[in-house]
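Materials and Methods. Structural model of Dihydropteroate synthase. The 287-residue sequence of Dihydropteroate synthase from Halanaerobium congolense was retrieved and submitted for structure prediction as follows.
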Amino acid sequence: MTKRKIIKTNRGDLDYSRKTLIMGILNLTPDSFSDGGKYNDLDSALKRAEEMETAGADIIDIGAESSRPYSERVSAAEEKKRLIPVLKEILKVTTVPISIDSYKSSVMRAALEAGASIVNDISGLRFDEKMAATAAEFEAPVIIMHIQGRPENMQDNPSYQNLIFEVKKYLWDGIKIAKEAGVKDEDIIIDPGIGFGKKQVHNLQILNRLESFKELNYPILIGTSRKSLIKFVVNKNEVNERLFGTAATVSTSILKGANIVRVHDVAEIKKVAVMTDAVKWEGNHGR
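The predicted structure was written out as tokens:
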């Protein structure tokens, strides 16, 4: 019998023992690479959040500052202005845990005080030294992501001597930062950061060798949805034409060890995940 693997949140347990968790993306930004400006008013954001939960999202990840390559930073005050009023209303119409995509502790504190569940930090707790302690104070699960550089310069010329080793070390160091600040072991999630300071060949290598990240012994999140990696391989310039390429990366990631997939197209990718989970888990019964 498979041992239950649980991520505890203030909105209930997330069981990833034999199921891939779907994290739906909701950008409250005017400039995100895929859907900038589409959901940055209250009505459209609420409608989208409800749609994603109905479609099968286990988590909704809300971001109020774009982290696309070469994007401009916004102040914590502006980020909170975009995020907190919408977050409060989304919490009224949804039941799933809400993740906040931010690397600023003051933004995260305001979000957690409002009722958010999960800390999703693209910097792996590096850009703001108070992030880990803030998460620990609220006993919130933390997603520690790898990035080389910062969003405004990360794609200038990313380079590695030993890609997998360096990404794993960055994640392991982030885990140490979290635990030293009081984050519980069972509240840690890792993300190798597809597209964040990586050439496309790096992204493909990480997906191909994703199993090696299981050695860290934490749930793995992968975010490939609509990213330029898909354009690079299947030559689709329009982000909305990258669904099938995204589906392929999601299925590959699940088979190689991903526990959470962060996606825009929740309804479609939910079906991909359910089918891939069936192959991954039910296929083991004959052994």
